[in-house]
Amino acid sequence: MHQLIDSHCHWDDPRLQDLQPTLWQSCVDHGVSQLVVPGTQKAFFKRQISVCEQHPSWHLALGLHPYFSDRHLPQHLVDLAHAIHLHRPVAVGEIGLDFALDTTLEGFSISDQERWFIAQVQLAQQVKLPIIVHSRKANDRLGQLLRQLKFDQGGIVHGFNGSLQQAQKFTQLGFKIGLGGTLTYDRAQAMRRLAKTLPLADIVLETDAPDMPMAGQVKGSPNLPDQLPRVLAVLGKLRQESLLEIAARTVTNTLEVLRLK
Questions:
Q1: Residues of the chain whose pLDDT is less than 50?
Q2: What is the rounded distance in angstroms from the CA atom of residue 203 to the CA atom of residue 31?
Q3: Contacts (Cβ under 8 Å, ≥6 apart) of 96
Q4: What is the rounded distance in angstroms from the CA atom of residue 9 to the CA atom of residue 91?
Q5: Judging by beta carbons within 10 Å of its beta carbon (0-12, 13-18, 19+), is residue 257 exposed, middle or buried?
Q6: Most C-beta atoms within 10 A of its C-beta, which of 52, 175, 222, 258?
Q7: Interval 230-250: pLDDT, tens
Q8: In the prediction, which pLDDT does 14 show?
Q9: What is the pLDDT of residue 38?
């Protein structure tokens, strides 16, 4: 069995918590020994913190997600900074830009999303924490902003979907590239080519559970973190490399970029 870290799992989501404690035991049985649990909005911080305090292998990250830009308030940035000081998360996140959203809607404009992102990057720089980045159709702009802000704490670009050149621009800034269930789909040829080409030192594994379902999953059922070995298996087949080597390296990458012991 290969020991793995799910670098992106919304473990506090009720769809996963309703399956406890059986689900965590299944994770352990499948070699998924640690989870990184990103935040999405202020309303869920308390729930998320409470869950992560229950086990040392469930690592807290806190942030304001672009999906909920219309719900974020200026006070939430103050609350985020306070929660970071009190609870010492491993990262600020999940933060980022999502240009696949309807940016004509109030609260979701590009300028609104960028305002929340910039404020949180600046906070992460101040507290010297890495960030967990959400990016949809926004890789170039995110890279540009990170360079302009001179952000040097690194992090993870979660659920990456872009070109090798875009990935390299992130890795040059100290980021790892999160690969997940998309790899399990035969039709995801561009993503599979990227997974074969990226240096192993730049890759971390994730599920984004309970979202981002994997190939063959029953429609409507939640994605689960105990399925992470499926991502490892596909990556091993694509790269023609030892599963043990990939598992060990991706775990090391996650530990290093998030400064975990």
A1: none
A2: 18
A3: 65, 66, 117, 133, 134, 135, 138, 142
A4: 14
A5: buried
A6: 175
A7: 999 999 999 999 999 999 999
A8: 97
A9: 98
Cα distance between residue 260 and residue 109, in whole Å: 35
Cβ-contact 238, 183 below 8 angstroms? yes
Residue 53: give its domain's CATH number. 3.20.20.140
In this prediction, residue 261 carries a pLDDT of: 79
- Asked if 168 contacts 131 with a C-beta cutoff of 8 angstroms, the reply is no
| pLDDT, tens only, 84-114 | 999 999 999 999 999 999 999 999 999 999 9
Tokens of 20: 């406890």
Report how far residue 60's alpha carbon sits from residue 155's, in angstroms, rounded to the nearest whole number: 14
Separation of alpha carbons 11 and 21, rounded Å? 12
Which residue intervals of 164-242 are DSSP H helices?
164-171, 189-197, 228-239
The number of residues in the chain equals: 261
Domain residue limits at 152: 4-257
- Cα dihedral value 75, 78, 82, 87, nearest 10: 80
Split into its structural domains, the chain has a count of 1
Q: Give pLDDT, residue 253.
A: 98
Structure tokens at 5: 């870290």
Peptide bond into 222 cis (omega under 30): no
Distance CA 248, CA 235 (A): 13
Peptide bond into 106 cis (omega under 30): no
Residue 83: which of 117, 115, 52 has the closest Cα? 52
* One-letter amino acid for residue 186 of the chain: D
